[in-house]
Specification:
The chain has 317 residues and is α/β, with parallel strands linked by helices. The chain has 13 helices and 11 strands. The longest helix is centred in the N-terminal third of the chain and has 16 residues.
Length: 317
């Protein structure tokens, strides 16, 4: 089950498609209109369909109240989740799993199947849709070329790096590092975060393609899968690069990399992943601190253009 709009992240996975499996979409935007009788009726019917499927096991890897309630709504006899699920999400589980609080989020999630006798394998591979891959291969400008992806945007201002520095890095990749093209990616309405990059793409159409706000999740995955390098701020694109085993430079500021940074170390991960984060000795990060402008902006400003270019050289050596 995934939020509607994000199904492209998982729907092409061969194990999901095996034996008649598929994606259950949760339409958060539609069902969130709780004041609407039509939305209430649609949600109730959707919940009835969820229960009619008669799942044997449901694992809630998100651990919030909504996901916990949806887990319970399935009526499955075995419902697994975190014992300390936030917002009381544990109310939906028959099996409440205690996991160490200081480990990586991926490792915490992998502990959940063990509760029902399945020993997990840390296989982080993602799978892109074949049609989307073909479209990237045929794309005018960068299809078939050695291109780098810049993923500069973030929902949180505290995670954003100066976009003028991204321009400097992109120019260096084109002029000095053997890259034939730069592709810029980001979500809807995020172009305003990076005016310098957008202006660069406008002025240098031969070497730069701006895809901010125009890709679906499935399309973004295909672009990342075909890239020769991804450089990005703390965002989904960085984790996609890990899933497609692409060389990656990840710029981190107010985020605890040990908990939610790139989940390297999977059985298929061989491409270099270089994290650039500039913490001073003794400096600690507050949980949830990424939602505040500071100290994130200060931490991100410490990362220099030279830091990122050096990291890119290490990642593509």
């Amino acid at each position: 089950m995934v939020q509607k709009g994000f199904e492209g992240a998982v729907e092409a996975h061969p194990d999901l498609l095996a034996n008649g499996g598929g994606v259950v979409e949760f339409d958060r935007k539609r069902f969130g209109r709780w004041f609407s009788p039509a939305a209430q009726g649609a949600l109730l019917e959707w919940l009835r369909g969820l229960r009619r499927t008669r799942y044997d096991v449901v694992i809630d890897a998100q651990g919030l109240l909504r996901s916990g309630l949806l887990t319970r709504a399935t009526g499955a006899p075995v419902r697994v989740g975190f014992a300390d699920a936030r917002e009381g999400g544990w109310i939906g589980y028959t099996h409440r799993v205690k996991v160490p609080g200081d480990g990586h989020t991926v490792d915490s999630m992998l502990a959940l199947p063990s509760a029902v006798g399945v020993e997990p394998v840390k296989d982080l591979r993602l799978h892109a849709d074949a049609a989307e891959l073909a479209a990237v291969d045929a794309a005018t400008g960068f299809g078939g070329k050695r291109f780098a992806v810049l993923a500069p945007t973030s929902r949180w201002a505290s995670k954003q790096w100066n976009d003028g520095r991204y321009v400097e890095v992109g120019r260096d990749l084109l002029d000095n590092r053997g890259f034939e093209h730069i592709v810029i990616v980001g979500g809807p309405r995020e172009a305003r975060q990076v005016p310098a990059l957008c202006a660069w793409a406008e002025s240098d159409r031969a070497g730069v393609t701006n895809l901010i706000g125009v890709t679906s999740v499935a399309c973004l995955m295909a672009v990342v899968a075909r890239s020769a390098l991804l450089i990005g701020s703390d965002s989904a694109a960085v984790h996609m690069a890990v899933g497609f085993d692409r060389p990656c430079v990840a710029l981190y500021g107010p985020t605890d990399v040990a908990r939610v940074g790139p989940a390297v170390g999977g059985v298929t991960n061989t491409a270099p992943v270089v994290v650039v984060q500039r913490l001073n000795p003794g400096e600690s990060l507050r949980v949830g601190g990424h939602k505040d402008p500071e100290p994130g902006r200060t931490l991100m400003s410490r990362i220099t253009t030279g830091d990122v270019i050096d990291a890119a050289c290490c990642a593509t050596r």
